[in-house]
């Protein structure tokens, strides 16, 4: 019943956001200071994935384009999408599945920049489906009927973990997903609140430090080069503020490229906005931060989401992607 209520609430928020996003009123561009710098609010998830924007802000990639980022943490993309549509944020970071679901419901979202991608290495990805030390669960198939922690229901964690189970010959429809923040998953595993968890870094390293193991590279199981998440805005905001959106795109692209080639600085910046212990920084598995989304992987993700019932209609990728 709790899962049903959450699903209905999310759907209602999407509908409300859609109505707000299609309004004819002018979207606020952001707060502009006397020196011409515009502060834009960005909804993010406090995980390794968003290190490039923190790093880009520190290196001045945004400020040299007249932008100052106000980064606001949220639990997942399902919460950030309505936040962008309701003008709480000018930009947001969301897993790809949440954006596909929004677009399929005609919610006017528009991707403006790539976010993060899997490492293309099975068994060495930055997200693992993890179990605690001593767990009898050794393979994805053994997750049948078990409780699995995800940061938001009906998002990329659900889709990818179900695919791992299917590829291992299991019945993915029997999984029971439990919603909680990433930074609470290690404790939930230890306390037997859940049997497994969707843990991107730094949660992955935290679980492993406690003796837990990864039984699947679930993002890899969807596609070795999976586009896991992207930065987006509302269609209306993009239309009304094209120059500001262009500046954000350019600064984010520069930030992604810099992060991809400066792993030591990535590890340093992650410690400033997550609870990762300094002793685990060197153990973090870093993702890839390519400049462009991988469309083929997004198409595959959409197929799986539709098969799982997360999507009733196929999303319009031409309308969604840059």
From TrEMBL:
Location of the Solute-binding protein family 3/N-terminal domain: 39-262
Pfam families referenced in this protein's UniProt entry, alphabetically: NMT1
Keywords: Signal
GO cellular component: periplasmic space
Signal peptide, first to last residue: 1-19
InterPro entries: Solute-binding_3/MltF_N, SsuA/THI5
Cellular compartment(s): Periplasm
Family to which this protein belongs: Belongs to the bacterial solute-binding protein SsuA/TauA family.
PANTHER family: ALIPHATIC SULFONATES-BINDING PROTEIN-RELATED, TAURINE-BINDING PERIPLASMIC PROTEIN
Name of the molecule in the record: ABC transporter substrate-binding protein
Organism, as annotated: Streptomyces scabichelini
